[in-house]
Amino acid sequence: MVTRTRIAPSPTGFMHIGTLRTVMFDYFLARQTGGQFVVRIEDTDQARLVAGAVEGLLNTFKKLDLDYDEGPVLLTDGTLGEKGDFGPYTQSQRLHLYKPYADKLLTDGNAYVCFCTTERLTEMRAAQMAAKQNPRYDRRCAALSPDEVKARQDAGERYVVRMRIPEGESRFVDAIRGEISFNNADVDDQVIVKSDGFASYHLAVVVDDYLMKISHVLRGEEWISSTPKQIILCEMLDIQMPIYAHVPLILNPDKTKLSKRKGDVSVESYLAKGYLPATLINFISTLGFNPKADQEIYERAELVKLFDLSKVSRAGAVMNIEKLDWMNHQYLMQLSQGELVAVVQPFTTLDLSSLTLQKALMIERERVSRLTEFADKLSSYVSIASYNPEVLVWKKSTKEDSLLQLTNISNVLSLLEDAVFDSVTLLEAAIKEYINSNGLQNGNVLWPLRVALSGLEKSASPYELLWVLGKDETLVRLQQAQKLIG
RNA sequence: GGCUCCAUCGUCUAAUGGUUAGGACACGGGCUUUUCAAGCCUGUAACGGGGGUUCGACUCCCCCUGGAGUCACCA
Question: Which of A62, A213, A260, A396 is flagged as catalytic?
């Protein structure tokens, strides 16, 4: 089976985290079957246009290293172009393509012109609500004569085109949920052409999916209830319906649909918080989809191979941020030094070309989960903040002893060969040897040494600090500590 | 409210009629340890309720309950 899947976001200026999941599922499906993954921009609502939104969206695709086969592309000069044989891929440029379909619906009697004003519609709904009826169009214009319609159109009266929902039942087999059916009596006469001449979502999407030969439509669960309108349109237009799969919602901790108010909704904000693209993709792809029972970390290629629409769960899922943090830490630990430098650099003003900081990065990632936390961790390697001399004293020791140990270890370290400073293991061996052969306690030596090197109560081990700082800086810091405590 | 979808640890999930209901995050305890982190071992914690079907139900059916989504000239 070769699939053509598509993602069709409205250009709001950012990518919703739920959209990312749908994108991933589309991507897996297309790559797995050797099919195509299409990006289409659904911008039929002129009132909601956001400047630069499409560029932003495509940029996010780029940041996540997600490739698609057809759709708008960002050209090197910053302008928009597109690739693929089924364009244009932006709905506002496809108005002429929707027109014949709308006309056919009208001439077949499957749609009708409606002159009702927004005010009347609002009043009508209010009255229906007051009477405890379901709000829906009352079909006042459904029986207008062709002559009257023409006369009023000629007079310049504003109008929309509505579907004439037939009696009967609409059913489809959802690839995730199985059979779903609706009584058409519960479906409203949907507007399919707006008064500004733009097709509404329902018409545009049905026509586009058909013309673009889309085989699989993956979208959020919130679309289930509008599916009968699209099924009916397909029937009226006599076109093949794609396979629909409604992906479960991503939820706030209180189990309601994820909203800005209650949490981060955009991919960009997670990126800005310091989650790696790979983490985000792994995490979001396995939210509601579990390839193997006892594995959490997956390569993208693995997911492509293992993805199975029928295994996607049907219930919504709360994002477990602690687990996201944990996962990001796992990914951070897998990076090479070069990769780590590259991903952290945008999150700090420090210049990470310094070897000391690169080493510090390798050490500090052990206790960091998000990229934003590095800047803080790195500062003590650049220069030591002023600290309370009492911190230099181990809880089981005394000030005098601490000073003595600092003085002695300083001498020992100054005599070590430079090569020893190139290895944490060698440093550790050398210091342990010194402690043991002199019958000292670890804490008496290691605690003051570590604090002298970091200025912190909590830090990496003294061996790691020595490795990062190097001999010269180490001796300087030990000097300062001795002065401070003395 | 109508319609629709959904229902296993706090959270994400595994189980496709027969398991001591498994894993992950988080949390507790222990080991390691100069501190922090990591690591290792380990513990607490779930099938919403009621009926069926069946020799046997987390798994299939029905009802209830609960939750969610949706009811625009927004997508």
Answer: A260
